[in-house]
Amino acid sequence: METIYLDHAATSPVHPEVIAVMTKAFEQTFGNPSSIHTAGRQARKVLDDARTSLARAVGAKDTEIIFTSGGTEADNTAIFGVVNMLGSKGKHIITTQIEHHAVLNACEKLEKEGYEVTYLPVDESGLISIDAFKNALREDTILVTIMYGNNEVGTVQPIAEIGQILKEHQAVFHTDAVQAFGLELLNVDELQVDLLSVSSHKLNGPKGIGFLYQRTGTPLSATFLGGSQEKKRRAGTENVPAAVGFAKAVEIAQSDMEAKVAQYEQFRSTFVTVLDGEDIEYKVNGNAKHSLPHVLNISFKGMDVESFLVNLDMSGVYASSGSACTAGSIDPSHVLVAMFGADRDELRNSIRFSFGLGITEELVKEAAIRTAKIVKRLAK
User: Fold this and answer.
1) Can you tell me the distance from the alpha carbon of 270 to that of 23, in angstroms, rounded to the nearest whole number?
2) Region label for 175, one of left (φ > 0), alpha (ψ between -120 and 50) or beta (otherwise)
3) Membrane spanning segments where (predicted)?
4) DSSP states along 290-323
5) Which of 136, 258, 280, 350 has the largest CB neighbor count within 10 A?
6) Which residues of 240-267 are buried (b: 16+ CB within 10 A; e: fewer)?
7) What is the architecture, at CATH level 2, of domain 4-12+256-379?
8) Where exactly does CATH 3.40.640.10 map onto the chain?
9) What pLDDT is attached to residue 328?
10) Residue 326: what pLDDT?
């Protein structure tokens, strides 16, 4: 039985071309970029080239890119780095109820330290209200952190509109664009963001590396202390092979972005068409007009997410839910709770399928057929 990996929103396989350039870097570029001898300078050149390429991908300057260990560190650096610098100007932060836990847990920690956090609600499609945002904004707001596209249901927020509202405000604007990078054209000037987080492993690059974009002049304190790497913003010897691989992954992603987006949208259509043909009762969660193309979150009537995921796994279809499984129990997804409330069926019967490298139309059809068979069997 052929296995079908439909969990690319969780992590993605590394592209063969990325593996090739990383292998070359491991073999030939072993110097410490901070060393002044030839091997060090060679490593610095390779690192700088990768940084320039990544900066160009979001319309930034190379000096505005801070390499991190991934999206979580980038989010944490943005949040704690800003409040450490601006805490004297206010204690208010605005975020949303559907952020990644890298943001939510950081905000929870700050609440315990005396900061006030407004968690904007979302509608049933996962979208915030601009009016609610305007009403939440205060003179003492120092940070707004709102994700670009949701990792569970794919809903895309009105980031550029928020950026315009904040143009004359003291608040620093951060967006977690981890799930969107490589599938959406992100330009930091058009979005009017001050800070932007991305991660390599979501777009067929290596795990363990990401970056934080920091607009020139944006106040940000270092969260790692040590050497003077990353212009004293993030201490630690840089991971040159990973940076090279990250840059290559982004180059590949941006070279065929339009075609890939169209393909993933077709996959979404194909999947639900098969379900329709099998007379499966379902509902697609998220926003139909403003959504990431590779995420398909579906609620199946009468199903239980725990047994559903086990059966999918046994049938060779690898998908996921936003629920946290601990010791045989499942805590509902905080994203779905925010969208639907605490007592809705969607909290217990929603599965996320996400597409990426190596997936074909035939595999999508086969995955949908296997899914339909499981729904029918469990319904009995």
Assistant:
1) 37
2) beta
3) none
4) SB-TTEEEEEETT--HHHHHHHHHHTTEE-B-SP
5) 350
6) bbbbbbbbbbbbbbbeeeeebbebbeeb
7) Alpha-Beta Complex (3.90)
8) 16-255
9) 47
10) 42
pLDDT in tens, 319-363: 998 755 444 456 889 999 999 999 899 999 999 999 999 999 999
Round the CA-based radius of gyration of the chain to a whole number and report it: 21
Q: What angle do CA 246, 249, 252 make, to 5 degrees?
A: 150
Report the distance separating Cα 372 and Cα 380, nearest Å. Answer: 13
Q: What is the overall mean pLDDT for the chain?
A: 96
Residue 309 sits at φ, ψ, to 5 deg, of: -65, -40
C-alpha torsion sign, points 290, 74, 351, 326: negative
Angle at 261 between CA 348 and CA 162, to 5 degrees: 75
Packing angle, helices 71-86 and 101-112, rounded to 10:
30
Please give the backbone phi and psi of residue 318, each rounded to the nearest 5 degrees, phi first: -100, 105
Structure tokens of 45?
Answer: 């050149």
CATH 3.90.1150.10 domain position(s) in the chain: 4-12+256-379
Q: Are 152 and 262 in contact (CB under 8 A)?
A: no
Instruction: Tell me the CATH number for domain 16-255.
Output: 3.40.640.10
Please check whether residue 300 is in contact with residue 282, taking contact to mean a CB–CB distance below 8 angstroms. Answer: yes
Q: Give catalytic status of residue 107 as yes or no.
A: no
Q: Identify the helix (H) or strand (E) that includes residue 85.
A: helix 71-86
The answer to whether 126 and 150 are in contact (CB under 8 A) is yes
Q: Are 63 and 114 in contact (CB under 8 A)?
A: no
Instruction: Please pick, among 28, 325, 362, 379, the residue that the annotation labels catalytic.
Output: 325
